[in-house]
């Protein structure tokens, strides 16, 4: 299988990675995206803001944090999700990073 090392389909490699990771994770936070992608938080936040303004992403506040997902009202959301999941198949490091994500909070009082 051909592995794509640099994919700038959505303007930049980082923007493509952010969109792909959001499609893999479903719902996530910009901080989590930055950690998983090993990217500066500021650049991830700028990408999320731009995609939110364009109507591709939906964001909502949960407490003081902003939860990010693909916008279900976007006219081509199902096609976009399918394309992003297909792109993820060519980037096994992104899929591996998404599967290592903690899906529930740690029990309080549990040692680190």
User: Could you give the count of β-strands?
Assistant: 3
The level of helicity is 40-55%
- Discrete helix count: 5
Structural class of the helices, strands and pairings?
alpha+beta
Tell me, briefly, the overall form: globular
CATH superfamily: Winged helix-like DNA-binding domain superfamily/Winged helix DNA-binding domain
Q: What are the low-pLDDT stretches, counting only 5+ consecutive residues below 50?
A: none
CATH topology: Arc Repressor Mutant, subunit A
Largest sheet data: 3 strands, antiparallel
Question: How many domains is the backbone divided into?
Answer: 1
Q: Specify the CATH class.
A: Mainly Alpha
Q: SSE order, as H and E?
A: HEHHEEHH
- What is the alpha-carbon Rg in Å? 14 Å
> What number is the mean pLDDT?
87
Question: What is the element layout, followed by pairings?
Answer:
Layout: H1 13-25, E1 27-28, H2 30-37, H3 41-53, E2 57-62, E3 65-70, H4 77-89, H5 92-99
Antiparallel strand pairs: 1-3, 2-3
Please give a quick description of this structure:
With 112 residues, the chain is α+β, with helices and mostly antiparallel strands. The chain has one domain: Arc Repressor Mutant, subunit A (Orthogonal Bundle), CATH 1.10.10.10. It contains five helices and three strands.
């Amino acid at each position: 299988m051909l592995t794509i090392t640099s994919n700038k389909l959505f303007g930049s490699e980082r923007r493509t990675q952010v969109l792909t990771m959001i499609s893999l994770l479903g719902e996530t936070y910009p901080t989590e995206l930055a950690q998983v992608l090993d990217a500066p938080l500021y650049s991830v936040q700028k990408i999320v803001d731009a995609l939110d303004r364009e109507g591709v992403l939906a964001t909502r506040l949960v407490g003081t944090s902003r939860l990010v997902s693909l916008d279900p009202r976007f006219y081509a959301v199902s096609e976009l999700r399918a394309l992003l999941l297909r792109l993820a198949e060519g980037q096994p490091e992104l899929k591996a990073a998404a599967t290592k994500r903690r899906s529930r909070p740690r029990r309080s009082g549990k040692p680190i």
